[in-house]
């Protein structure tokens, strides 16, 4: 597996206790972790309360005090959020 071998190579090239400057350049490791978090987020849903009136990116007005809930688990599986699809 090319990706697995690239990740292992990236890890071996770093010091025993990598620092931020080393980790930020680990392209394959970052991509692998990001994809894992997209497919298996640590929380299936999250909720926030608007502290001020706001407008969501889609144009929906959210009044102060309204609770907005979103589902990272489901959103990570929507075609429009997958890299390269619907983003350009």
From TrEMBL:
* InterPro entries given in the database record: Cyt_P450, Cyt_P450_sf
Signal peptide per UniProt: none
Gene that encodes it: CYP94A1_6
The answer, when asked if Kinase is one of the entry's keywords, is no
Question: Which keywords appear in this protein's UniProt record, sorted alphabetically?
Answer: Heme, Iron, Metal-binding, Monooxygenase, Oxidoreductase
Listed cofactors: heme
Q: Could you say which protein family the record assigns here? A: Belongs to the cytochrome P450 family.
Protein name as it appears in the record: Cytochrome p450 94a1
Q: Which GO terms describe its molecular function?
A: heme binding; iron ion binding; monooxygenase activity; oxidoreductase activity, acting on paired donors, with incorporation or reduction of molecular oxygen
Species the sequence originates in = Quercus suber (Cork oak)
């Amino acid at each position: 597996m090319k990706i697995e071998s690239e990740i292992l190579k990236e890890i071996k090239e770093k010091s025993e206790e990598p620092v931020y400057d080393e980790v930020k350049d680990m392209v394959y490791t970052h991509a692998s972790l990001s994809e894992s978090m997209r497919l298996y987020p640590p929380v299936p849903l999250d909720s926030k309360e608007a502290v001020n009136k706001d407008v969501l990116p889609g144009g929906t007005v959210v009044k102060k005090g309204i609770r907005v809930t979103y589902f990272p688990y489901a959103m990570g599986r929507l075609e429009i959020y997958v890299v390269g699809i619907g983003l350009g």
